[in-house]
Amino acid sequence: MESFAYVRAGSLAEAAEAFAAHPGARYLGGGTNLVDLMKLGVERPTALVDVTRLPLDRVTELPDGSLRIGALVRNSDLAAHPRVRAGWPALSQALLAGASGQLRNAATTGGNLLQRTRCPYFQDVSKPCNKRRPGSGCGALDGVHRDHAVLGHSEQCIATHPSDMAVALAALDAEVELYGTAGVRRVAAADFHRLPGAHPERDTVIDPGELVTAVVLPAASAGVPSAYRKARDRASYAFALASVAAVLEVADGVVARVGLAFGALAHRPWRARAAEEALRGGAPTRAAFEGAVDLELAAARPLRDNAYKLPLARNLAVDVLSRLVPAEEDA
Ligand code: SF4
Predict the structure, then answer these.
(1) What is the CA(324)–ligand 1 centre distance, in A?
(2) Which DSSP string do the residues of 131-153 spell out, in sequence order?
């Protein structure tokens, strides 16, 4: 065990100050991923800045009808929240599809967004991994990569992002609120995670020292039919092989609003912009869904062992979208 400093922050300013005072520090929330990675020697922080006493554990309805979720709200509490279940059901479903009951009781909203890939080479310090040690190579490229990316990957890294929750947030047009020395800013959830490019060591667009303080669900997607579905190797406590979050509003027989995001296909939740564009304004038929998803997945570059993800993701997306069509509109 390596020694590290421990600081319990009493305010946001104190947290930022402690982080800046310890180069190599990490913020500590639920610890369900960070502490595991420390035990494996993957994360070796010089200091843990404990933010669990900050007042970020509330879900607040804002005057404009949006919902502000504090970064310390536990995954279980968020999944069960009546406003979330009624207004943004895809988020509740995605949370319940992740991890186990015990982990969801401990894991926080902010920590869920910031969890690291479960690529086995990343978690094994004896293996090359550009994400863990830039420049060391990618063990998965010619190794075991059945669970890895089919979209947006690079020669440097083919990892996928493991969060279910983040996929729903991307489809729902949620925003992530960040606090840093320059103040507070908001980033679209769909743009919060990065593609690997030449710098797979960076998972997100977060700046050093910035802290996730909240996630905001927009009023515009409240009450719009939405759903999340996940395919995995076993019925529970497993990461996705492919997953889909969809938001679909049909008015006067045409698609008035659509949000579609894939999980487990890329280094970030994959917002299916091309498919959405193809669907908007058209009839919500199965053939239209198939065509739109095919258009999106045409950009895929499957690896030696993971081409199976493409028909899996296609079928999931077509099924989820079809089930969101109101019965009276069913073709
Ligand atoms: Fe590391 Fe990414 Fe390669 Fe996995 S896929 S070994 S995380 S560089």
Answers:
(1) 36
(2) TTSTTS-BTTTSS--TTS-SSS-
pLDDT digits (tens, 9 = 90+) for 273-308: 999 999 999 999 999 999 999 999 999 999 999 999
Residues with Cβ < 8 Å from 92, sequence gap 6 or more? 78, 79, 80, 81, 84, 85
**Can you tell me which atom of ligand 1 is nearest the CA of 148?**
5
For residue 252, report the distance from its CA to the centre of ligand 1, in Å.
47
Ligand 1 atom at minimal distance to the Cα of residue 119:
4
Q: Residue 313: is its pLDDT beyond 90?
A: yes
Which domains, from first to last, does the chain contain? 5-52 (3.30.43.10), 225-326 (3.30.390.50)
User: What atom of ligand 1 comes closest to residue 137's alpha carbon?
Assistant: 8
Farthest CA pair distance, the chain = 63
pTM score of the predicted model: 0.98
Q: Is 266 in the pocket of ligand 1 (CB under 6 A)?
A: no
- Per-residue pLDDT tens for 85-107? 999 999 999 999 999 999 999 99
